Amino acid sequence: MAFPIPEPYKWDESFCVFYSQLDEEHKGLFDGIFACAANRGDKGKFDDLCKKVSDHFTTEEGMVDGNNYENTASHKEAHKEFLTKLNGLSVPLDDGAVDYAKNWLVQHIKGIDFKYKGKLG
Ligand code: FEO
């Protein structure tokens, strides 16, 4: 099942995983994608998004690793696939790239990140 894409593209409480650092980072990813969608040719904003994504995955993987969380391997694989796709894009971003990133983040948080809710730390 596909979760709806918020419009405007902003984090809201339906995306809450209830770990403050992860929720803050997820907000930053929504804002980063929003900024790239509004400034398709801005390489600085795109590079900033790529760094935020990479940093977030590092944080999140560090948290799931220490917690005996059963879906770690497939979760990491999903992260790696997105980073590879993201790093393969170039500015100016086209509609397909923007839609892909918007959709990926929504489906990933609600479909995969949500599985660790209540199980970490
Ligand atoms: Fe919050 Fe698995 O990325």
Describe the structure.
Keywords: Iron, Metal-binding. Belongs to the hemerythrin family. Fe cation 2 binds at residues 60, 75, 79, 108, 113. The chain has 121 residues and is an all-alpha fold. The protein has helices at 20-38, 43-65, 72-87, 95-111. The radius of gyration is 14 Å and the shape is globular. It binds MU-OXO-diiron. Residues 26, 56, 60, 75, 79, 108-109, 112-113 line the site of MU-OXO-diiron.
Summarize the structure.
With 121 residues, this protein is mainly α. The chain has helices spanning 20-38, 43-65, 72-87, 95-111.
Number of helices: 4
The level 1 CATH classification is Mainly Alpha
Unreliably modeled segments = none
Task: Determine the strand fraction and express it as a percent band.
Answer: under 5%
Key descriptive features of the protein:
single chain, 121 residues, mainly alpha, Four Helix Bundle (Hemerythrin (Met), subunit A), 4 helices, 62% helix, globular, binds MU-OXO-diiron
